[in-house]
Design goal:
The protein has five helices and two strands. The protein is mainly alpha-helical and 87 residues long. It has one domain. The protein has a two-stranded antiparallel sheet. Helix 2 runs antiparallel to helix 3. The chain is globular and about 30 Å long. The two termini are 13 Å apart.
Length: 87
């Protein structure tokens, strides 16, 4: 599924997308606009990153969310973690 997060080319772009969502703005990408919440997007990014690394346990997903937050993304960590674990 293509969306703003899967279309991003770097963690810096992911941070911009998530912060736009947190501010209530859609994130355009080739083929549409992503209207999901910052927490849904952060959860997706963390789960996708965990899957790429081959470790999809909750601690690994949380570590990817930590990296995202350290890079400047604004989201509710616990809601994003819950979203990723439910996906």
């Amino acid at each position: 599924m293509t969306n703003a997060i899967t279309s991003a080319q770097s963690i810096e772009q992911v941070v911009v997308i998530i912060n736009k969502a947190k501010a209530g703005h859609a994130s355009d990408y080739f083929g549409g606009a992503d209207l999901r919440s910052a927490e849904k997007m952060a959860g997706q990014y963390a789960l996708d990153s965990a899957e790429e690394s081959g470790h999809t346990d909750s601690d690994s997903i949380a570590a990817h969310l930590d990296l995202l937050a350290e890079a400047g993304a604004k989201f509710n960590f616990y809601i994003a973690l819950d979203n990723a674990n439910q996906a």
